[in-house]
Design brief:
The chain has 200 residues and is mostly helical. Helices cover 72% and strands 0% of the residues. It has one domain.
């Protein structure tokens, strides 16, 4: 996970910015959104910490078991929540990927670079395939959402968007409820996860 310093800092910035936006999303009036945003904020900040170049900061050895326990618990929570919606399965896979990366980073250096008789480990390859598909699918889904969001005020008439979602009130809560921004947030984390898995 310790690639060139410049790309490492870009990854830190992307993950930290995503985590910060997820904190903003936690001000949503919808409990389901708040819960999902909290988990995504935790993941964003944790990924930012993992991406800090090793020349600047090397986490202590006890940090990786803590990562594994925290995201293992988050994965169990996502598994329980998946009973009410399939979208929680993505959180389950993301938490599982965090546990996997923490376990790899806690192991000997040879494991961290994927050097072995079989090349890329099977689990790393499976996660790469999953997140590549997720990034492509989310990116495609984001295009029509942005177009509709841009054309919404023009077609609504009058002080539109007041019936579906309150425009007045706390502007931060309104930003936290925008579905296209939530998708962009997940897309950013999917790209960051891909970058981190490639460097394992």
């Amino acid at each position: 996970m310790h690639g060139p310093a410049s790309s490492g800092w870009l990854l830190v910035a992307l993950c930290a910015a995503t985590g910060a936006y997820c904190l903003l999303r936690m001000r949503s009036s919808v409990e389901e959104q708040r819960r999902a945003a909290g988990g995504e904020a935790l993941m964003g900040f944790a990924m930012a910490a993992m991406a800090v170049p090793a020349a600047v900061f090397t986490p202590p050895t006890w940090a990786w078991p803590v990562y594994a326990v925290v995201f293992g618990a988050a994965g169990l929570s996502a598994l329980w929540a998946a009973r009410s919606g399939r979208h929680h399965l993505h959180h389950l896979v993301g938490n599982g990927a965090m546990v996997y990366m923490a376990v790899v980073m806690a192991g000997p250096p040879a494991h961290g670079h994927g050097h072995g008789t079989s090349g890329i480990p099977v689990l790393t390859g499976a996660l790469l395939l999953y997140f590549t598909g997720y990034v492509l699918l989310t990116g495609v889904r984001l295009i029509p959402v942005v177009a509709v969001a841009g054309g919404g005020p023009a077609t609504g008439g009058g002080p539109a968007t007041r019936g579906g979602r309150a425009v007045g009130g706390d502007p931060a809560a309104g930003w936290g409820d925008r579905p296209e921004l939530a998708r962009a947030c997940r897309l950013s984390m999917g790209i960051a996860m891909l970058a981190m898995l490639v460097t394992l």
